[in-house]
Design a protein that fits this description.
CATH superfamily: Vaccinia Virus protein VP39
Order of helices and strands: HHHEHEEEHEHEH
Strand content: 15-25%
Number of strands: 6
Number of domains: 1
Number of helices: 7
Structural class: alpha+beta
CATH architecture: 3-Layer(aba) Sandwich
Helix content: 25-40%
Radius of gyration: 18 Å
Length: 179
């Protein structure tokens, strides 16, 4: 089984995905419990996965999720991050796509809120990818921005965390300079 994990990508049963969030919210109107998360990862041996890429629900009240307060959301994400860290190899990377939490018109960037959780699990956040959507520059969007005096969310952020000594990354992937 370990050999299969090293050969190619695997799917961890969609944990943190819209489908699993929908199933959890239908069953109990709550985020998946820590025991549900552990059972989902139970079949994956410790320290065997070199790359995990995920985009968990942002907790913004979409059809597939039930919006909860920030503290409860971060607690649920911490349980997932803990299990990811358990199965991640000592030289493995975790790519975690995040958005913002908005409550009473206050914006909390989730990448900042999640950073201590990654650190507590022995992961080093060493990069952040910010993807800017091209639609931001359209005239219609510019008019909305002026009307509401607030920029629309037109970016996606991906936290890139590493388990182990980040200096080993440069040894394996030397810098290539500016692109």
């Amino acid at each position: 089984m370990t050999e299969n994990l090293r050969r190619g990508p695997i799917t961890l049963g969609g944990l943190g995905s819209p489908a699993s969030a929908a199933a959890a919210s239908t069953a109990s109107s709550r985020l998946p419990s820590a025991s549900t998360i552990r059972r989902s990862f139970a079949w994956v041996p410790e320290k065997t996965v070199r790359l995990i890429v995920t985009s968990p629900p942002y907790n913004i009240g979409k059809k597939y999720e039930r919006r909860v307060n920030l503290e409860e959301y971060l607690k649920a994400q911490a349980a997932v991050i803990k299990e990811c860290a358990r199965v991640l190899a000592d030289d493995g990377s975790l790519c975690w796509q995040v958005g913002n939490f908005v409550d009473n018109n206050e914006i909390v960037p989730l990448d900042i809120a999640l950073w201590p959780i990654f650190r507590d699990q022995g992961l080093t956040v060493y990069n952040k990818i910010i993807y800017l959507e091209g639609a931001f520059t359209r005239l219609a969007q510019a008019k909305k921005t002026l009307k509401f005096r607030k920029f629309p969310k037109r970016e996606q952020r991906i936290i890139v965390a590493f388990k182990g000594d980040v200096r080993t990354i440069e040894a394996e992937f030397p810098p290539i300079g500016r692109l």
